[in-house]
Amino acid sequence: MRTKIVATAIVAASCLATAGALAHHGWGSYDAANPVTVQGAIATSKYENPHATITLSDAGKVWTITLAPTFRMSARGATEDVVAIGKTVSAFGYPSTVEKDEMRAERITVDGKTYELR
Amino acid sequence: MTEGAPAIFVALEASGIGAAIRQSRWLYMVSNIGHIVALTFFAGAIAVMDVRLIGGFAGTPPARIIGQARRVAIAALAALALTGAALFTAEASHVVLNRAFQLKTALIALGLANVAWVEFVILPQIKRLQDSSPMPSGARTAAIVSIATWLGVAICGRAIAYF
């Protein structure tokens, strides 16, 4: 009986325990202390859930930029057309500490208009 | 898309349904919110059953209150499966390799095995018990396993986003 309780407690706790050790996809894995601004023409655009993403080339480096859920983006005016392929975008955000050349955008500016994404 | 995932999950994510869920303004969000709402009903119904199995609500006939709560639990589980399937399909190749999701799946299997144990072993023992009768020893263990397992499932579900 007691052994069973201990065993189930261990099973349930194991998820939490490994969360700290292995986490790499949450917002915690972005380096908020060293924000970057990247700028360029959008090469690919996925206006999809859970987060829209675009890629663009800046100074010879191809960045993957994670934006926001599409519902929030369109609610703030950043519709699919705003982040369409070919648009010039400036993105301020935080580089991933896990994925190479990936960043999470805090805000983007397109055609002189700034969209807050958080 | 995660290339290393088993082909069936890559295909599921690449399917028309997967694309529709990702690209819809509403589907993903509704599934997301529906999953949480269904979880609250599921957790509530599970808690009623487990508290009764442990010996709480002693003034009620156990088989009856468990039977009533079970209907809510079954409906909530169906809603969880439906909304969960939508969320999974949208990102199948990525989520299937997610450690938290894998642990969650294992815990769901454990939880369902415990449901079978309660259904076929414990419930027949308490079928005719009256109010305030002491519960059989296995009932308490099953209830604790149930609470711990489903809490673990919920924790792992939320943890998927952090792996």
Portion in beta strands of chain A: 35-45%
String of helices and strands of chain B = HHHHHHH
Rg for CA atoms of chain A: 19 Å
Largest sheet of chain B, in brief, is: none
Task: Work out the helix count of chain A.
Answer: 2
The protein's oligomeric status is heterodimer
**How would you spell out the order of helices and strands of chain A?**
HEEEHEEE
What count of helical segments of chain B does DSSP give? 7
How would you characterize the largest beta sheet of chain A?
5 strands, mixed, barrel
The N- to C-terminal Cα distance of chain B equals 16 Å
**Stretches of chain B where pLDDT falls below 50 for ≥5 residues?**
none
Please, what is the average pLDDT of chain B?
95
Overall average residue pLDDT of chain A: 86
Report the β-strand fraction of chain B as a percent range. Answer: under 5%
Strand order of the largest sheet of chain A: 1-2-3-5-4
Rg of chain B over CA atoms, rounded to whole Å, is 18 Å
The share of residues in helices of chain A is 10-25%
Helical residues, percent of chain B: over 70%
What sort of overall outline of chain B do the alpha carbons produce when their principal axes are compared?
elongated
First-to-last CA distance of chain A = 48 Å
Protein architecture, described:
The complex is a heterodimer of chains A (118) and B (163). Chain A has helices at residues 2-22, 70-75; strands at 36-46, 53-58, 61-66, 88-95, 102-110, 113-116. In chain A, strands 1-2-3-5-4 form a 5-stranded mixed barrel. In chain A, strand 5 (102-110) and strand 6 (113-116) form a beta hairpin. The model of chain A is unreliable at 18-24 (pLDDT under 50). Chain A has 118 residues and is α+β, with helices and mostly antiparallel strands. Chain B has helices at residues 7-14, 16-23, 27-54, 62-90, 92-95, 99-126, 137-159. Chain B has 7 helices and no strands. Chain B is an all-alpha fold and 163 residues long. The chains are: A alpha+beta (118), B mainly alpha (163). Chains A and B meet through helix 1 and helix 2 of A and helix 2, helix 3, helix 6 and helix 7 of B.
